[in-house]
């Protein structure tokens, strides 16, 4: 008897969640970028609006950008009404998303603490709690002892350089598994007829008489009735091919994980003053991040001194982490606006729609922005929750300034 | 981490510097005369190229002087630095 070839006894390949498509010559809607936002937009275009002749063009592989690089914090406790509107809409969708997509997302409402370390922090935080409540967003102000009850490993001694003076707590906030979210949306959208075309970089937008007519790509030209940009950190590059300038700056944002540890951290802790945020993934890694690298860059990596600073901050808040080892660090390219709020809506070119500027905090918005952006594309008119995030707010001055207001990014 | 050649002090670690964004953005000569669109462009719009970018740095933990650099944002390679007031060199 001849020996069996290696691998002959392996089980069958599991069912594919979607099938890679060859580009057709034309689509009703082309979505540029297969991250979370592009996938969610495709899903809701098909599901809510019956628009299924849709292609998602992705220059790499699906969800290989920031969608697979973020630290998965989900919350809706933003200060301003406009932000509360869209982020709370997203959080409500998250609460039903596993059922909606019939897919596990490891969505875990373990709460988010935003620590206050100075009198000004305390005042801003209490104000934000009141604003959140008026907007129907769950929010509590906790004193240091209560903070310790929610998260026993936080150092609340008054003797450290930036003592914890309290925290806001949003119990419904939490984390989810980002790649599952991408797969869930991709599978559900594919089932409704959406096509995914990977390794297909959009190199130019075709515009004639002020109206978009299609895209040039590394896999040929594709005609499109409408084009929806979901290219995150590369939006400026794509928009520039249609002569559109956007108030965006692209920066690396880094994150890191520790080796796998026993469950020690039951919630999510964010601190803007000490500047780190930490949660513990289901698998056991401590997941940490902080701020962007200061200089503009399209490199998906940042400088090590940024990592060093965030580790120092983490140790100040969590002395128990002193012996934990860093397993891996990485970066993504995020598109930052002057007011730290996104741009979602119409563009100066008819049939071309903008969804960008989510910077360091767009993962949490994924279902909400997919919902609102799909509506915007389908109706050629901003969804009411997206309307405040128009491009022309930078001319009218109606900014949604979450920079100072939200206390923390992400 | 970038190794940035300060035009006065020579190559130093990025951690000694403070970033100043796009270079050569002049304050409008007559701000009150600008339209809302022009004011928005001055205030909020900066170039964001994937490629060579003229930008400002301050050697804040060194000589504390501002200067300009030409850096490629796709590779982070610094093509050259020049002092404030000097013309932008042609990128090699
Ligand atoms: C380290 C890090 C931590 C973060 N932490 C959080 C967090 O805790 N909570 C939170 O809410 N947010 C967080 N974010 C932000 C969040 O990841 C982003 O706002 C969000 O992922 C952006 O939407 P997206 O998923 O569609 O982006 P992406 O996944 O980046 O999708 C954009 C896609 O467009 C593709 N693309 C670009 N140009 C082209 C082109 N020319 N042609 C075709 N395709 C193109 C890219 O390859 C990419 O796949 C974090 C980001 C990073 C980098
Ligand atoms: Zn110097």
TrEMBL record, chain A:
Q: Does the keyword Nucleotide-binding apply?
A: yes
Subcellular location per UniProt equals: Cytoplasm
Q: Biological process GO annotation list?
A: tetrahydrofolate metabolic process
Give the Enzyme Commission number. 1.5.3.24
Segments forming domain Rhodanese: 29-73
List the keywords (alphabetical).
Cytoplasm, FAD, Flavoprotein, FMN, Nucleotide-binding, Oxidoreductase
Its recorded reaction(s) are: sarcosine + (6S)-5,6,7,8-tetrahydrofolate + O2 = (6R)-5,10-methylene-5,6,7,8-tetrahydrofolate + glycine + H2O2; sarcosine + O2 + H2O = formaldehyde + glycine + H2O2
Give the CC-aspect GO terms: cytoplasm
What GO MF annotations does this protein's record show?
nucleotide binding; sarcosine oxidase activity
Q: Which InterPro entries match?
A: FAD-dep_OxRdtase, FAD/NAD-bd_sf, Rhodanese-like_dom, SoxB
Q: Which cofactor does it need?
A: FAD; FMN
Pfam families reported in the protein's UniProt record: DAO
The text of the family note is: Belongs to the SoxB family.
What is the protein's name according to its record?
Sarcosine oxidase subunit beta
Q: Which organism is it from?
A: Nonomuraea montanisoli
TrEMBL record, chain B:
Q: What is this protein called?
A: Sarcosine oxidase subunit delta
Database matches in Gene3D superfamilies: Folate-binding superfamily
Question: What terms describe the molecular function in GO for this protein?
Answer: sarcosine oxidase activity
Which InterPro entries does the UniProt entry name for this protein? SoxD, SoxD_sf
To which species is this protein native? Nonomuraea montanisoli
Q: Where along the sequence do coiled-coil regions lie?
A: none
Q: What is the lineage of its organism?
A: Bacteria, Bacillati, Actinomycetota, Actinomycetes, Streptosporangiales
Q: Which one Pfam family would you cite for this protein?
A: SoxD
**An individual GO BP term:** tetrahydrofolate metabolic process
